[in-house]
Design goal:
Distance between the termini: 5 Å
CATH architecture: 4-Layer Sandwich
CATH class: Alpha Beta
Number of strands: 14
Helix content: 10-25%
Number of helices: 5
Low-confidence stretches: none
Largest sheet: 7 strands, mixed
Strand order of the largest sheet: 6-5-4-3-2-1-14
Mean pLDDT: 97
Radius of gyration: 17 Å
CATH topology: Metallo-beta-lactamase, Chain A
Strand content: 25-35%
Number of domains: 1
Length: about 250
């Protein structure tokens, strides 16, 4: 299994990275978390024609602005977009005129699958829980190829954050804010993410969704965040666009 980070910025793309998207290459299919503009790079890493399962965490534009480039993912096996009923309803409103080409006209067969809050067994094993963010947001815990991949982005630390990360092989967690910074919007800093990984007993923590501009305006600031997180949780990785992890 390979995990490739296609976009690791929050809010907007800049010279350091694209907005969020993560590709997981499994034995039988591809899993993609979020459709920030990083998703446009997915075809560079998809060498086989396998079904694609695209999980959308919430409807903020930095996480869905790449939906209009889904035709670039030219697989014949189709793309299933998975999220809560509320978000699927919202996506169907924007995936048509006047915002973009209608998804029903895409050549790669776009479908939708509603996830309930809690455990979902089909079409893929995934737990979906509400997170602590300004608008309706969920995190995911996916079981695939004998591994548990948890994706929590965007969120402040909360009980569901830890539940999703429990004993995960990889916890992919946002790190929007610099050390010591918090506010009511619902984001995390490196200490927060590391504490979740420690409390949950995760095996690996990967920091992503770094705030651009003054928060994380250079590679050094990201690496500094990693060093801070490692004080609490040693096995921490700082993600940049094109970072790849093999399990």
């Amino acid at each position: 299994m390979k995990i490739t980070f296609l976009g690791t910025n929050g809010w907007y793309s800049d010279k350091l990275g694209n907005t969020p998207s993560v590709l997981v290459d499994t034995k039988d299919y591809y899993v993609i978390f979020d459709a920030g503009y990083g998703i446009a790079l997915a075809p560079n890493h998809m060498k086989k024609d396998k079904p694609i399962y695209l999980f959308i965490s919430h409807m903020h534009m930095d996480h869905v602005c790449g939906l209009h480039v889904l035709p670039k993912l030219k697989n014949k096996s189709g793309i299933t977009i998975l999220s809560t009923p509320k978000m699927i309803q919202d996506m169907k409103k924007i995936m048509t005129h006047p915002y973009m080409s209608p998804f029903k006209e895409f050549s790669n067969n776009i479908g939708f699958h509603s996830l309930k809050i809690g455990e979902n067994k089909t079409p893929i094993n995934v737990a979906c829980l509400l997170l602590e963010h300004a608008d309706h947001t969920v995190g995911f815990r996916v079981g695939v190829d004998g591994k548990i991949i948890t994706y929590c982005c965007d969120t402040a630390i909360c009980a569901n954050d830890i539940k999703l990360a429990k004993n995960a092989d990889v916890l992919i967690h946002e790190c929007s804010y610099p050390t010591g910074f918090r506010n009511a919007w619902g984001h995390s800093n490196p200490e927060d993410a590391a504490q979740v990984a420690k409390d949950a007993g995760a095996k690996m923590l990967v920091l992503t969704h770094f705030g651009p501009g003054g928060m994380y305006d250079g590679k050094k600031k990201r690496l500094d965040a990693g060093r801070i997180a490692k004080k609490t949780f040693k096995n921490t990785v700082v993600a940049f666009d094109d970072t790849r992890i093999t399990l």
